[in-house]
Amino acid sequence: MTLKLGVPSKGRLMEKTFDWFSARGIGLSRTGAEREYSGAVTGIDGMELVLLSASEIPRELARGRIHLGVTGSDLVRDKLAAWHDHVIELEPMGFGFADLIIAVPKCWVDVDTIADLDSAAAAFRATHGFRLRIATKYHRLVREYLRKEGVADYQLVDSQGATEGTVKNLTAEAIADITSTGETLRANHLKILGDGIIHRSQATLFKSRKAQWTGDDRKALQVLKDSLAAAHV
Ligand SMILES: Nc1ncnc2c1ncn2[C@@H]1O[C@H](COP(=O)(O)OP(=O)(O)OP(=O)(O)O)[C@@H](O)[C@H]1O
Ligand SMILES: O=P(O)(O)OC[C@H]1O[C@H](OP(=O)(O)OP(=O)(O)O)[C@H](O)[C@@H]1O
């Protein structure tokens, strides 16, 4: 058995994860053909690279199929109920920053806070006969947040992409999605509610509580932790 490290298989997160480990003396790379999902590790014995979709990594950690995983802190919180029971946050990595926010049309001049949204939602239901729709793919985080804030008169509409477009397309009145530069929100005439930041996410190295840890796995983890502690980056 080797210690399995799950890393996003493509895009920004994969490249920045490779750079992050490289700056700490550990080489991660994709091997094989361009589209083949296999990888190699150098600089540490007994560790295997597993390339996965960022959104699958939380479940793989919770099932114990990987020992360590890099993914957004938003995805761990959204994909896993009681995430603390399944994983431990070892290290925030300082990239992949994105805020999960709630946004409404800019033209809703009376709605700037969650309390305003609550009032608007009640009025919306009275007028339209159905609950105000919030489009998102972050179902757990949005539900938990709105429950905490005392907002109940809404329904979630699932949107797995191009979420900001749902308002213009009249399939939702509000959205909850991640933003980094804010460009997509601006382009779609949406504004963030003042207190509508649900979670500030960044790429994070997680450890599974559910994986089986052999003596060799623990040794490899200790070598990894020593490399992280020794790096002055
Ligand atoms: N500007 C951004 N757009 C999208 N995701 C971002 C951005 N900045 C940081 N992230 C983070 O990247 C992660 C999502 O990565 P990615 O889109 O590769 O995941 P995925 O849902 O597994 O993708 P796919 O389903 O296409 O494989 C989330 O943790 C998110 O917070
Ligand atoms: O604040 P910004 O810098 O504009 O970034 C935010 C956008 O980026 C992400 O979408 P992505 O491009 O990953 O596509 P998606 O809509 O398919 O999720 C996210 O869902 C927002 O739409």
TrEMBL record:
Any GO molecular function: ATP phosphoribosyltransferase activity
Keywords assigned by UniProt, alphabetized: Amino-acid biosynthesis, Glycosyltransferase, Histidine biosynthesis, Transferase
Alphabetized Pfam families for the sequence: HisG
Enzyme Commission number: 2.4.2.17
Catalyzed reaction equations: 1-(5-phospho-beta-D-ribosyl)-ATP + diphosphate = 5-phospho-alpha-D-ribose 1-diphosphate + ATP
Annotated InterPro entries: ATP_PRibTrfase_cat, ATP_PRibTrfase_HisG
Pathway: Amino-acid biosynthesis; L-histidine biosynthesis; L-histidine from 5-phospho-alpha-D-ribose 1-diphosphate: step 1/9
Keyword Transferase on entry: yes
Domain ATP phosphoribosyltransferase catalytic: 54-223
Stored PANTHER family: ATP PHOSPHORIBOSYLTRANSFERASE, ATP PHOSPHORIBOSYLTRANSFERASE ATP-PRTASE
Function recorded in the entry: Catalyzes the condensation of ATP and 5-phosphoribose 1-diphosphate to form N'-(5'-phosphoribosyl)-ATP (PR-ATP). Has a crucial role in the pathway because the rate of histidine biosynthesis seems to be controlled primarily by regulation of HisG enzymatic activity.
Matches recorded under NCBIfam families: hisG (TIGR00070)
This protein's name: ATP phosphoribosyltransferase
